[in-house]
């Protein structure tokens, strides 16, 4: 199974403000309707695993951006799943390696991993093969970082970089460890 992260960060490496706000992610410049490859990426994945904070943030927007892709929310707390999403979303409390083994058994070929802590734990477990990071031209100064401490160096191979006229830069890396 291949696992990929598709995530946006500020230029100084934050995925959200300290309070979890992502207001700085709004449309920018003349490409407000650009999806930066997200639809094509979603077409390539079989399932999404996200953390509870990411789920809560997505639910607060009022829009479900994942279509009919099945989603697992990793959480230790009770969760409310709206009736219209009950056939797509399930809550689990499971270590990444155990979950990955189960998903391979369920026939998942490409897993989308989302949410800072979830990306970090899957990356630390050696389960992420590709990182697609879209950097916005904004400095937040503080917030929730995409990456935290790692037990060992994580070596990456640059795949490509695309720049957009509004200043966003999207870089794709393969994990080589």
Structure description:
It contains four helices and ten strands, in the order ββαβαββαβαββββ. It has helices spanning 38-44, 52-61, 96-105, 116-124; strands at 2-10, 14-16, 47-51, 71-74, 89-92, 110-114, 130-136, 144-145, 156-163, 169-175. With 177 residues, it is an alpha/beta fold. A hairpin with a 5-residue loop joins β9 (156-163) and β10. It starts with a strand and ends with a strand. It has a single domain (2-175), classed as Dihydrofolate Reductase, subunit A (3-Layer(aba) Sandwich), CATH 3.40.430.10.
As for the CATH topology, it is: Dihydrofolate Reductase, subunit A
Query: By CATH's scheme, which homologous superfamily applies?
Result: Dihydrofolate Reductase, subunit A
Q: SSE order, as H and E?
A: EEHEHEEHEHEEEE
Give the overall pLDDT as a whole number: 93
Radius of gyration: 16 Å
Structurally, the number of domains stands at 1
- Regarding CATH, which class? Alpha Beta
How would the global form be characterised?
globular
The helix tally amounts to: 4
Q: Low-confidence parts, pLDDT < 50 over ≥5 residues?
A: none
Could you say which structural class the secondary elements and strand pairing correspond to?
A: alpha/beta
Strand content: 25-35%
Main sheet record? 8 strands, mixed
What is the CA-CA span between the terminal residues? 16 Å
What is the helical fraction, as a range of percent? 10-25%
Q: What would CATH call the architecture? A: 3-Layer(aba) Sandwich
Strand order of the largest sheet: 5-4-3-6-1-7-10-9
How many beta strands in the DSSP annotation?
Answer: 10
